Amino acid sequence: MNIIYLHGFLSSALSIKGQQLKQYCQENTGHQVYLPDLNMHPEQALDKVSNLIESLQDVALVGSSLGGFYATQLVAKHGVPAVLINPAMRPWALFRSLFTEQQLPFNVTDNWQLDDSQLDHLAKIAVPFVQDADKILLLLQQGDEVLDYREAERYYSAAPNMSMTIVDMHGNHAMDDFSKKIPLLLEFLSYSIK
User: Fold this and answer.
1) Which helix (H) or strand (E) holds 50?
2) What's a Pfam family in this record (predicted)?
3) Virtual CA dihedral for 99, 13, 140, 44, nearest 10 degrees?
4) Which CA distances in Å does 72 have to 9, 28, 69?
């Protein structure tokens, strides 16, 4: 299986969870983990991952926060399975609440500024309901200090498009106990690959 890990906003290809997943797979499985840098315009990031999906076989996604939003759009486009970790549901609204108009464009990296047109693009591409819901495992933590876990829980459990969901009582946005969940998510992805 080829697993593409999609990091969140203000993270990178060196994300802790991505590195944990890669190390676990190297030590315990034959799975290959790809860690693309997604610090770029959302349209470019999605094109980059789409091209990677199309170049590989037996592909699965793991996405955290903004990466979870991206993964949801990519599942709808490519029909690949995904595990979502505290996914951002409406990143355009989240970023507008975090950054005032005076702070936009926001310098994310030396090469990327997040601006209003990109936020509008995110709103435009968001799928209105979960597609291929049976191929998605949703991992949420009620202690998420960045996102309201209930928003994702409602979206991914709306009938008839219900995804498998696991909600932990405490935790945080980073999901610090992610390494303990790796065997479970790999089992789900292996089962869900066509």
Assistant:
1) helix 42-55
2) UPF0227
3) 60
4) 15, 27, 5
Which has the closest alpha carbon to 154: 163, 146, 143? 163
pTM above 0.90, yes or no: yes
Look up residue 111 and give its amino acid.
N
Measured CA angle at 147 (ends 105, 32), to 5 deg: 85
- Residue 103 has φ and ψ, to the nearest 5°, of -90, -10
Q: How many CB atoms lie within 10 A of CB 41?
A: 15
Separation of alpha carbons 55 and 133, rounded Å: 24
Q: Do 115 and 104 meet the contact criterion of CB atoms below 8 Å apart?
A: yes
Judge contact between 58 and 193, C-beta under 8 A. yes
List domains and CATH numbers for the chain: 2-192 (3.40.50.1820)
Alpha-carbon 71 to chain mean position: 5
Instruction: Give the chain's residues under pLDDT 50.
Output: none
Q: Write the Ramachandran bin of 45: left for phi over 0, alpha for psi from -120 to 50, otherwise beta.
A: alpha
Question: What are the tokens at 107?
Answer: 């310098």
What does the pLDDT read at residue 194? 61
190 backbone dihedrals φ, ψ, rounded to 5°: -60, -40
CA–CA dist 112, 105 (Å, integer) = 10
